[in-house]
Amino acid sequence: MGTSMAQEVSKAQIKGLDEQVQEIKKDVLGISTELALLEEKLLYPSNTQVSVFVSFADKEGFRLDAMDVKLDGQEVVHHLYTAKELEALRNGGVQRIYTGNIRTGEHQIEVVFLGKSGLGGVYREKASHTITKGVKPKLVEVKVAGSGLGDAIEFKEW
Amino acid sequence: MKPFKLLLIPILNIGIMTFQTVDAKPATDLFFGEAIYYAHKGEYFDAISRLDTELGQYYGLDEPGLDSLHQFIDNAQFSVGDFELYYRMHQRAGRAITSVIEGNVEPAVRNKAIYRLAKILLQKNQPVNALHAIERIKGDIPDDIRDDIEYVKAVIFMVNGRPTDAINILTGLQSSSTHGGFAAYNLGIALLQLGKDDEGIIQLDKAGATSGSDEGTKAIRDKANLALGYKLLESGQPEMAKKYLDRVRLNGAFSNRALLGSGWADIALKQYDRALVPWTMLSKRNVTDRAVQEVLLGVPFAYGKLGLHGKAAILYGKALDSFDTELNKLDASIKSIHDGKFLEALAREELKLDKSWVVKLRDLPDAPETHYLMHLMASHDFQESLQNYFDLEEMRKRLLKWEVNINAYQELVNIRREYYKPLLPVIEKQFQLLDSRMRLRIEQRDNLENKLQSMLIAPRPQFLATVSERINGSRVENLEKRVKHLALTDESRQRVELLRGVLNWNILTEYHERLTQAFKRLRELDGVVADLKNTYRSFVRTRQSATQSYEGYDDVLNTLRLKVVDSQERIKTAMLRQGHMLETMAINELDTRRKRIEGDQVKARFALAESYDRAQKAQADEELLKTVEENARRAGELAKEKEKSEALKGGDINNVNDTTGKDVVK
Predict the structure, then answer these.
(1) Of A95, B163, B215, B234, whose CB count within 10 A is highest?
(2) Does B379 contact chain A (CB < 8 Å)?
(3) CA distance A128 to B65
């Protein structure tokens, strides 16, 4: 048949297009940043914003399967973890699991997680914490430390 | 037919595209930690976007030193460059890392940055710049990357044509747990580059006998043995070459080339029957492989050398059939690429989730034969172009989503404006009234405090008289005036004075108690005023946030919308160009393979014709030989019969002999 296009793809063409793609990436990242700031201002203004973050304490052999977060008794998030997400948490990553709006004043935050120990035992841990929402955004870190000897879940306000 | 040539190319082993944090400790800044979370998930766009946002906010602070990111700022700067590198934004990553190099940072951090930069430049095929970068490393080097730096430095020296410098480094890396195997191989290649063939061969021999059962070590062993085998083949030592080629595993990535080379070594030794062993095995493998296609001609060639021309002719015929099939397959693949099926298949999401997606690609209807594209698909240029195509596709989807979001935000802003705009003037009016009353009360309170404070220095008991005391005081004052004007009796005057005395007594004697009480009440009032001020501030904030919930967004949203549309257009154009480039690369690769097969086809046709002729000639010779032998046998029998009849009859012997002789000649 011999249907060759007989076109050469030169190194210069590859480089030129690659640089063009990099420029597009830079611009799209710029839009993403602007949009993130706009969304925060528009949807989650600081005087009502509350965010919940999840991190892992340094404990080996623990596997997190699922997490529920309740705010003032209402379930606001239910998250099932993938292997990649667990790996990211184990490597020091912090997951923003929820962002929402609440009024100023006191609020109850309740966290329940399902997990497995290194030996395969399934367990469920639950903890609650009272936060006081002020004018600034309220950032709450939920540090998960595996099976419970009283320190399975720690809360930290930022 | 000629065997492959050995290329003296070092193994780079530097492009492991899995993210490793610069600092393994968990970040104690939530937003930096969030960026790391996305990076570890391989979602570099989100990682960069979030860290960029965080860094932008950090640099916009009046006192960044108080921010939780402050103590990790160098690490964050470095990480954003790192993420950009993984997102194939080499230009920006290079700039970011360069800024760290030139910044005031610890030597360990600086050296890590230079190492990263050198790797980028090496990957971007800029060996001279990579050399300039790596030579800037000095001072404290972190232990965890000491061997990595040395290894990359050696590779950079090799690609810059400085094998002597590379040899010095690679010799020191032989016992490295991470790079030992690669260093052993590259050392052999560097010695060959330098022309020290004997030492290079000894070194490759060592690399080919490295102990270890992990897949990486096995692959290096195979590669070293293969390289050594071909080097020895080139230098005319087929017996030694075969020894090394036969060491290569039969199921590894290099096995096809090893089997091919092993057969060539036998051919060089004129041991054609032995060549058939590896080549027959190879000929049963996937026919799309170049080595297999080459051996389809090799096997009949060996049979031909063994004089089995008929067998050779049959196998050349089979090779031609096989080449026909492959050419049809290639034509169909080229057509499918022209029809856009290749890009369609590449963009399928479900394939990207599977590690063996390239292999599965060919199971899709009308997709091109990916076996022919394996080599191309493994090349750096194709991978970069393919990843760019994927990234463009991902950005295209993001922009579509953002476009919808921006329109929704615009609607949200409009609804808020419609709701708040009529309400706010009424609220504002009420607020102004309350505001003036509040200001008055606060002014009164302040006056009160000033008076009380001055009474601490200059007591003014009358200021603390009660309401009844003030009324009674006025009455007494009237009475005093009347007593004075009417000239009443002493008794009446004394009674009025008594009343005045009682009033003054109470006011004066209770003064301190009353002053204390007044301060206490003032504090109580302060509590009420504080509540009032809180309510006031809360109201101001609410009014402000109500206004801010719809004001000032229109321009931002419009600008963003324009930017999104502009980026969508640019992505569309870039995707067309990138897609066309991928298609052209694939078609060129298939076309090259097509031409090679066509060349093989021509060779096979000639060889078939030659083998056929030789087989026919051999058959004719054989038949002739058989006829001669048969005739000779018959002549012998006749001679015996003649002798018998002579012996029996004793007459007409000469006549019989003549007749027999004519028959024989006939």
Answers:
(1) B163
(2) no
(3) 32
pLDDT single digits (tens) B268-303: 999 999 999 999 999 999 888 889 999 999 999 999
pLDDT for position B47: 94
Long-range contacts of B317-321 (CB under 8 A, 24+ apart): B317/B608, B319/B600, B319/B604, B320/B601, B320/B604, B320/B605, B320/B608
**DSSP β-ladder status, A105-116 and A63-71:** antiparallel
Answer CATH for A49-157 from 2.60.40, 3.20.20, 3.30.920, 3.90.1150: 2.60.40
Q: What is the pLDDT of residues B186-239, one digit of tens each?
A: 999 999 888 898 899 999 998 888 887 888 888 889 999 999 999 999 889 999
* Contact status of B85 with chain A (Cβ, < 8 Å): no
Contacts of B581 in chain A (CB under 8 A): 9, 13-14, 17
As for how many domains chain B has, the answer is 1
pTM value? 0.75
Q: Which residue of chain A comes nearest to B590, CA vs CA?
A: A4
For chain A, the structural domain boundaries read: 1-43, 49-157
Check CB contact under 8 Å for A92 and B25.
yes
Q: Domain range for residue B272?
A: 212-285
A42, A88, A96 ranked by CB distance to B41: nearest:
A88
Would you mind telling me the total number of residues written for chain B in this entry? 666
Residue B266 lies in a domain: yes
B103, pLDDT greater than 90? no
Helix or strand (DSSP H, E) at A52: strand A49-56
Residues 588-607 of B with CB under 8 A from A: 588, 591, 594
Answer yes or no: is B262 within a domain: yes
